[in-house]
Amino acid sequence: MSGRASVDPAECWAVGGVGTRAPHKSERHMKIGIIGAGNIGGNLTRRLTALGHDVSVANSRGPETLADLAAETGAKAVPATEAAQGADIVVVTIPEKRIPDLPAGILDGAGPDAAIVDTGNYYPQQRDGRIDAIEAGLTESQWVEQHLGRPVVKAFNGIYAAHLLEKHQPAGTPGRMALPVAGDDPAAKAKVMALIDELGFDPVDAGSLAESWRQQPGTPVYGAQTDADGVRAALAEASPQRPSEFTA
Fold it and tell me: How far apart are the first and last CA of the chain?
């Protein structure tokens, strides 16, 4: 997202850029697919390539529209149907209303143990229109999981995109900014939490996907810039009642 938190991770699928980054190799090189190259997707591409990961990035308009981002970062711009091929982690970061439009089997090429990350948020009044299942009480990421046909981990949905570039700090730094992570697959969740730590933020286990309402729009943790203790306190304070501005 731009001025709000992932608060709008992918209002625009495509993003360009200039300049280059010298890669810093991570301890474990991974293949990462990013579906959606908006604000969150674009900045994750920048950070993950800088860490030395092999990143394939796609949007709805075709790889030719991502030439600037690819040149800037060294990521590979690919069709959306190829972004997950062989990936250890796949990040789906597109507007909620676009989830049903993704090609069938878009995740089929991902590794059998791949972690699928959903960064999305439901904005019924501002962008997405009414989604009945979410209005009836399904969490946003449970709804996304049903459409994707793979277990998902909810992460990066409440961070401002610029903070991915500006707020990261080494592990152990006092007051290090923390991010909540929800999901039902312990191994996938652990993989995503390790990646968040590598990106420079403290990961906080936010529970199951059914509990991921605690980090949806309008909750205390959404958009918060706080450390791990602050994130835990904000998650505990959350109400399952969706605020009126985030209902249809």
Answer: 21
Output the CA torsion 236→238→241→244 (10° steps): 180
Question: Which two three-digit tokens encode residue 155?
Answer: 């992460």
For the chain, percent of residues with pLDDT exceeding 70: 89
Number of residues that make up the chain: 248
**Cα 113 to Cα 88: distance, rounded to the nearest angstrom:** 7
Choice among 15-19, 50-54, 135-139, 200-204 with the minimum mean pLDDT: 15-19
- The string of DSSP letters for the chain reads --SSBTTSTTSSS-------------SS--EEEEE--SHHHHHHHHHHHHTT-EEEEE-TT-GGGGHHHHHHH-PEE--GGGTTTT-SEEEE-S-GGGGGGSPTTTTTTS-TT-EEEE-----IIIII---HHHHTT--HHHHHHHHHTS-EEE-STTSBHHHHHHS---TT-TT--EEEEEES-HHHHHHHHHHHHHHTSEEEE---GGGGGGGSTTSTTTT----HHHHHHHHHH--SSPPGGG--
CA 87 to CA 33: how far, in whole Å? 6
